Amino acid sequence: MKKIKMFILNSLILLASSIILQIIGIFFNVYISNKIGSEAVGVFTLVMSVYLFGITLATSGINIAATRVISEELALANESGVKSATKKCIIISLITGLIASLIFFIFCDFIVSKCLHNKVSHKVIYTLCIALPFISMSSAINGYFVAVRKAYKNAMAKFFEEFVKITATAMILNIFMPSGLDYMCLSLIIGDVVSEVLSFLFIYVLLKKDKNYSKSFRFLSTSYTPRILRISLPVAFTSYIKSGLSTLKQIIIPISLEKSGLGCSLALSNYGIVNGMAMPVIMFPSVFINCFANLLVPEFSRYYVKKDSKRIKQMSTFILVSTLIFSFFVCAIIFFLAEPICQLLYKHHNIYQYVKILSFLIPCIYLDLVVDNILKGLDAQVSVVFINIADCLITISFIYFVVPALGFFGYILSIFVSEIFNVIISLSRLLLLIHKNK
Question: Using CA atoms, how far apart are residues 418 and 395, in angstroms rounded to an integer?
Fold first, then answer.
């Protein structure tokens, strides 16, 4: 009963903080979108897709590894291994973060010319290199706090990070705004880098003061490196492929739109409208899903290590049904209120049309978020990434061959193909695991 109460308490804390952060985030995105324009939003979205690939290289599955290993130690009442495993995760994350930064530094010319269409300068890539080691180490510490059921400390760090990012970005953007598109993107990246560095320092202080970590344990001679790498390496390797394909998908979207007859600026503008403006509206209510979805990993890890198949089935059924009910409710609200919502947020009058169309995907998107986290808790994290890889390959093929013929409608159609395929395969994999563990 105490564990259930802790899970509910963590969920409620994360829910409240996530709602506030999501509201702050969406209004900040609206501020940025209205300030820099749809073409600049499209370019910045491309930069962020490359940035996310760098984050994948840097984190290398360390978050899920930290959560899994520490959760298993706690489930087996082996508290003496918690601090040792956490330290090892942080060291590994620092190494992978530095390697990712070095790779981006070396291939800066290629990234700017081939991936970003020379729309931004090298300064943008060099700047984001600074953040990667700090993001990686923060990811390891986040995994620790989720495992020890203190995810509210991650929320505290996130609040601090958002405050710093918004403040720094607004100040820098006002200075560099007249200097053109390149400096707009550079301003946004600098704001993000500053927030990531300070956020790591903040969450590291929280870690040092946490009683589960600061206890004076008698360390065992057991090496946690093999266990961490057994989880992180397969996730990292497949994540590299998945994230690389995802980045490639984002890069070829404007190219395919250009082939359909749109000019470069118009293609980037339309891309920015959907990815940078419409999708945030669709994803905003997912805060209610995300607040507890990440907590499913340690909970199902505990069921998995104890081989509690009955509990796995009960919890999975309850969570999936609840998610579907919620997502259909959200879908109806966004569909009918799309126009007033978009008029309130954006200057562009045609965005609500895309929000209405994409609202039909809400049940698929939200259900997939939950299913993926349950699968990770059941030691099926590699399956999750392989499903995402297959999704990317199918979507890339669709975008490359179909979008030039169908134009912008083809791009919208590719989003539907991607989301529907992903949720069907992920749900099938989960049902197979539940049946296998009976």
Answer: 6
For the whole model, what pTM was predicted?
A: 0.74
The rounded distance, in Å, linking the Cα atoms of 64 and 132 is: 17
* CA–CA gap between residue 52 and residue 251 (Å, rounded): 13
CA angle 136, 137, 142 (to 5 degrees): 95
Assess contact for 327 and 359: CB atoms under 8 A.
Answer: no
Buried b (16+ CB within 10 A) or exposed e, 369-393: bbbbbbbbbbebbbbbbbbbbebbe
Pairwise CA distance, residues 289 & 302, whole Å: 21
Helices (H) and strands (E) in the chain, counts: 20, 0
**Which tens digit of pLDDT belongs to each residue from 105-158?**
999 999 988 788 788 889 999 999 999 999 999 999 998 888 887 877 888 898
Using CA atoms, how far apart are residues 311 and 383, in angstroms rounded to an integer? 22
Q: What is the DSSP string of 304-328?
A: HHTT-HHHHHHHHHHHHHHHHHHHH
Please list, in sequence order, all residues whose beta carbon lies within 8 angstroms of the beta carbon of residue 178, skipping any fewer than 6 positions away. none
Of the candidates 341, 305, 310, the one whose C-alpha atom is nearest the C-alpha of residue 69 is: 305
Reported as type and span, the H/E element at residue 144 is helix 122-147
Residue 21 has pLDDT above 80, yes or no: no
Give residue for tokens 């600098």: 190
User: By three-state DSSP, how is residue 24 classified?
Assistant: helix
CB 172 within 8 A of CB 95: no
pLDDT at residue 275 greater than cutoff 90 = no
Band of residue 178 on the pLDDT scale cut at 50, 70, 90? low
Going by C-alpha positions, the residue among 382, 375, 227 that lies closest to residue 301 is 375
Buried b (16+ CB within 10 A) or exposed e, 342-352: beebbebeebb
